[in-house]
Design a protein that fits this description.
Number of domains: 4
Number of helices: 14
Radius of gyration: 35 Å
Protein name: RecT family protein
Order of helices and strands: HHHEEHEEEHHHHEEHHHHHH
Length: about 375
């Protein structure tokens, strides 16, 4: 009676060899190897869209999508777009696939009501398995609320755009398996954040002077030209060269700013010069020293603009005006002297006699103290 009860032995249960079974062209090594060769043919072809040319990996994935859909690979590539790394279908292709898929007993049809701001379009079809009539309605009010109208075609062909939108929503609601759950191009574009801001300076100030060397009359002339690259300069090939190219570009822009701001006659002119540097400042492409140079140059320009009339010509009597120790160029000269520099390397200062005098005064002041 003291015998212990014998527990039944635990039977071994069969375990799946893999949690996720490979599908499509990834199901077998030989099929994958063959698909790679096919993908290379498409990548080298002129018949595929630009976003597939030369990209074997993208063509390979498109081949897998075509294999899973039992569709011609070229047809898939011609109608498959890529927006922010997401695949998306052309809407007309979604409609064509849905109409012949057998999910709907009838073709997708539309009904339009109202005009202008009150335009509403309804896409409808009959389900083949149940006979239920299903529909999706979209309107211009919805388009404006969701930001679809940023596409200019909603102004030129609103009913056509609403038809595509309503059909895409109908397919995604009642037949998502037909398109493997992939959204339409319009849906992905509307859900994608705006493109990053272009960091190229939008405008610069022409720093030319008159033949006599004096400052030209009137405000600086704004141009859209960007400093051209040096002729024959090789394209950066690695991270180090790219970094050096970025630094050189920033230095060129800062030097240009120091020169341009000297032509400013009004506060607006100075603001225009600063606007050209905004993209560089916001993207942290300027070093601390470059930022200080920009601030000093802008401060000196504002001080010059606010100076009383006739102050710039007070040295014409042969009497040299004392240099303000707080002058940015005076401070820069003193700082350069402490760093052991032998001469001024800023072209905007050396080109201006008054600024050069202030820089030299600061330079000499440190030497006298030593």
């Amino acid at each position: 009676m003291n015998a212990r009860a014998q527990l039944p032995a635990v039977q071994d249960q069969p375990r799946p060899s893999q949690m996720f079974a490979p599908v499509g062209i990834f199901a077998a090594p030989d099929k994958f190897e063959h698909s790679q060769r096919v993908a290379k043919v498409f990548a080298d072809s002129q018949l595929v869209p630009p976003h597939f040319k030369g990209k074997i990996a993208d063509c390979l994935i498109a081949l897998n999508i075509a294999d899973r859909m039992q569709e011609d690979p070229l047809t898939v590539m011609q109608n498959l777009a890529i927006v922010s790394g997401k695949p998306c279908w052309q809407t007309q292709y979604m409609i064509a696939r849905a109409n012949k898929s057998g999910v709907f007993a009838t073709r997708i049809t539309w009904k339009s009501e109202g005009q202008g701001e009150r335009l509403e379009v309804t896409a409808g079809a009959t389900l083949a398995d149940s006979g239920e009539v299903v529909s999706v309605a979209v309107s211009m009010a919805m388009a404006k609320a969701d930001g679809w109208t940023k596409n200019a075609k909603y102004t030129t062909m609103p009913e056509h755009m609403l038809r595509w939108r309503s059909a895409a929503m109908l397919i995604r609601l009642y037949a998502p398996e037909v398109m493997l759950g992939i959204q339409s191009t319009e849906e992905v574009e509307d859900a994608t954040p705006s493109a990053p801001r272009d960091v190229t300076p939008p405008r610069q100030i022409e720093s030319s002077t008159s033949p006599s060397g004096s400052r030209p009359s009137g405000p600086p002339r704004l141009t859209t030209a960007k400093p051209a690259a040096a002729p024959g300069k090789p394209t950066p090939a690695d991270g180090q060269e790219v970094s050096r190219a970025v630094e050189d570009d920033a230095e060129t822009v800062v030097t240009q700013f120091e020169s341009d701001v000297q032509l400013a006659r009004t506060e607006q002119d100075i603001a225009d010069c600063e606007d050209a540097l905004t993209p560089y400042a916001e993207s942290d492409r300027l070093s601390r020293d470059q930022r200080n140079r920009v601030e000093n140059a802008a401060e000196a320009a504002r001080a010059r603009i606010k100076a009383p009339a006739g102050q710039e010509t007070q040295q014409d009597d042969g009497e040299e005006a004392p240099v303000d120790p707080n002058d940015p160029d005076f401070k820069r000269g003193a700082e350069d002297r402490r760093k052991g520099q032998k001469r001024c390397v800023i072209s905007a200062i050396t080109a201006d006699e008054k600024r050069m005098a202030a820089w030299k005064a600061g330079f000499d002041s440190v030497e006298a103290e030593g």
